[in-house]
Amino acid sequence: MDLTDHLGRPVVAVTGIGLVTPLGIGVAASWEGLLAGRSGIRRITRFPTEHLRTTIAGQVDLPDEDPARAVCSPERVERMAALAAAEALAGAGLGGRAEQGMGFPGPLFLGMPPVEVEWPQRLDLARAGNGPAAGTYPAMVAAATGRQDLFEGVLFGGVGERLADRFGTQGAPISLTTACATGASSIQLGVEAIQRGEATAALCIGAEGSVQPEALIRFSLLSALSARNEDPARASRPFEKTREGFVMSEGAAALVLESLESARARGATVLGLLLGCGERADSFHRTRSNPDGGAIIGAMRAAIADAGLQPADIDYVNAHGTGTPENDKMETLGMRAVFGEACPPISSNKSMIGHTLSAAGAIEAVFSLLAIRDGVLPPTINHETPDPAIPLDVVPNVKRPARVRRVLSNSFGFGGQNVCLVLGAAP
Description:
It contains 13 helices and 15 strands. The chain has 427 residues and is α/β, with parallel strands linked by helices. The protein has two domains: 12-116 and 154-424, Peroxisomal Thiolase, Chain A, domain 1 (3-Layer(aba) Sandwich), CATH 3.40.47; 120-151, no CATH class. The strands form three sheets. Strands 1, 2, 5, 6, 7, 8, 9, 10, 11, 14 and 15 form an eleven-stranded mixed β-sheet that branches. A two-stranded antiparallel sheet has the order 3-4. The protein has a two-stranded antiparallel sheet with strand order 12-13. The longest helix has 19 residues, at 73-91. The protein is globular. Residues 9-425 form the Ketosynthase family 3 (KS3) domain. Belongs to the thiolase-like superfamily. Beta-ketoacyl-ACP synthases family.
């Protein structure tokens, strides 16, 4: 295979992958659970859920986690991102180089959620005040004065800086958030840096740790979450007629990207290729897509064109597939507009792992590469009553053997932020 693509840019290879999902820590555990059609959704045990409308989520049990200690979202993001990155770097043959003083030969692109002081920290500050003013705003400000740990814990760029130090990446780490497209955006930035010749390698991570009371309340107020609390495993139902909302989840994925030339020069195993990226935004509404589907359709078409392909060249679509009535309807509209009557199979990993928000695009990119590697389409589980308004092959309930050479992976975020990736088989 040529080392440059149809536009003369360096071909981008994937040489390492890492996963942390509600199905397990590590690529093997997550992929095995996905192909088995096993749900990682369960009742929330990490914090009290009384009076919450939704009491289920896709939780990750971190190693040596103390259930009595409230861990804020940025810390969970950092820990899961580090686990995924360590696996990806080891698989790429680059693990341990930071410890040897050599470092990773490229920049870090970290996709993560916005951060803020959460209720456990606020309550600690309220308790720290003394006297009749205890719990008031001035008392909380006084209690927070000098708390360097609190400041660093809610510093958005701090997570990326610590990960960059840990893994020895080059240059200033880039931290970004583009709603539910965040994980795919981090990959897009890595791809483009290599294509422009600014780097020969990039470490791209998407991570999410926002399974916490405030986030659950906010999404519930948007009527976005499923409240099928009595049967968690069957709550996430993308593309199914009785779907009622997504299930919040957490996790992380890391991909080591390299130019194909660099990967071959050092004898690395190439797991697959990043062939194209497409990005479109519509700025129509904070949560809803423009009814004309222009940005969704445009992002899909742009990714396919960027890869130098035609729609008929796509073998499978890894859907955004959240299970909200709005998203599934709009993704179906986009599929029909791009592929016409010859839509390829489409399935949603979120039926099993829930919606990992900022991590979703990166996690689903890894699952797309594994579908290509193993020649199998993961299922959309909980597909019991087909929706006549969604005339798509959603690979219902059971995995399917298939020849998969090219995958379109969709990520559609709130605020009309949409990123699509085209992944291909290793040469």
